[in-house]
Amino acid sequence: MKRQSITLALTLLAAVATAACDDKQEAAQHAQDEADQAKAKADADVQKAQADADKAKADMMAAFAKTQADYRASIDKSLVDIDRNIADLRANAATVPGATKTLDDGLLADVTTRREAVRANLLAMMSCVPANWDATKATVDKSMDDLKAAVSAASDKIKVKTAAAVIPPTNPNRH
Q1: Cβ distance 132 to 175 under 8 Å?
Q2: Which of 41, 48, 114, 128 has the most CB within a 10 Å radius?
Q3: Structural domain contains residue 36
Q4: CATH (domain of 153)
Q5: Cα-atom radius of gyration of the chain, to the nearest Å?
Q6: In a domain, 96, yes or no
Q7: CA-closest candidate to residue 155, choices 102, 80, 77, 84
């Protein structure tokens, strides 16, 4: 009987231990399932955040490209007028002889150099990134201002000389 009692006690102990192991295994599986669900949700949240960030970046780059194109169109429009003025200056300077022509050629060379600087800065602007936009735009603006000032200065000097060459001097002795 003692042996039966020990066998029964061992059987009950094994059953309780098995049940306890089953509970721990079930709890571990439940914890693993919750962790898997949390990871899946976190992965989905990361993918959504990445998609949102990608869309925001694409929107920002599109807005930047539009800003860049609008600015370029504005500069190109100004350059059409400036290039027309430069052509007029060249035509006027061609009619002036001698030492004055040498001075005019120097003024036109300065205008040409400044026009080339604008062209080079525009090329740099078209390849700049948003982080460099303000500095690049400021460089283009300055080169445009320098070009306009050079054209204006050359225009004032060449037109005055051309007008003086066209108007014959008056003879005070003539009546």
Answers
A1: no
A2: 114
A3: no
A4: 1.20.120
A5: 42
A6: yes
A7: 84
Q: What's the rounded Cα separation, in Å, for the pair 57 and 62?
A: 9
Domain that holds residue 148: 64-166
Residue 74 CB neighbour total at 10 angstroms:
11
Establish if 137 belongs to a structural domain: yes
pLDDT tens for each residue of the chain, 175 residues long: 666 777 766 676 666 666 666 677 888 888 888 888 888 888 899 999 999 999 999 999 999 999 999 999 999 999 999 999 999 888 887 777 765 666 677 888 999 999 999 999 999 998 999 999 999 999 999 999 999 999 998 888 876 555 555 444 454 454 4
Alpha carbon distance 14, 20 (integer Å): 10
Q: How many CA atoms lie within 13 A of 42 on its CB side?
A: 6
Residue 148 identity: K
Amino acid 65 reads A
